[in-house]
Amino acid sequence: MVVHPARWSARFVMLAVCLSAFCFVPFVEPPRAEGADRKALIALEKKRIRGADDVQVHPFFGDFTGDRQEDALTVSYYHPKGGGNSYSIEVSLYRGAGNGFRFIKTVPDVYGQSPRAAKFSRGQVRITLTTLGPNDARCCPSVPKEYVVAAP
Q1: If residue 20 lies in a helix (H) or strand (E), which one and from where to where?
Q2: Least confident interval from 1-10, 12-21, 70-79, 130-139
Q3: Backbone φ, ψ for residue 134 (5° rounding)
Q4: C-alpha span between 71 and 73 (Å, rounded)
């Protein structure tokens, strides 16, 4: 059976259109907090933690609500006024809104240093911190621990 060249061309065009629709359409990612949004979140967290001399905010961004808006988890270390030489830790969740971030809640019972490797998924955030091992001095934690933070 011989296929007429006009039909072959039409089939080739249809195949090309189908492939371009499935293979070459870029995946649309949620908007990422950049520059001003990140600075605004850090400023919001510093303002929320009152009565501190020094606040160090470590923000992490991703989507834990499934609404394709970027949400945030912050790990903040702060020196309370009159607190001697101690530092406190506070972990907070923020929901992304069209005009920035909205505070949701603080997360209890998360301890450690060097927050890293935050992984966002619907309803939770996993984050790793370095915590004290059984033989570690208070100054020098050495054991990585992954926390699972429930997000509303």
Answers
A1: helix 5-23
A2: 12-21
A3: -65, -25
A4: 7
Summarize pLDDT for 53-112 with one digit per residue, the tens. Answer: 889 999 999 999 999 999 999 999 998 887 778 889 999 999 998 888 999 999 999 999
CA distance 135 to 27: 48
Residue 116 lies in a domain: yes
pTM of the model: 0.75
Count CB-CB contacts under 10 A for residue 78. 21
In 13-150, DSSP assigns E strands to 52-62, 71-80, 88-97, 100-107, 113-121, 124-131, 143-150
Domain span at 101: 35-150
| 39 in a structural domain | yes
Rg (CA), the chain: 24
- CB distance 21 to 13 below 8 Å: no
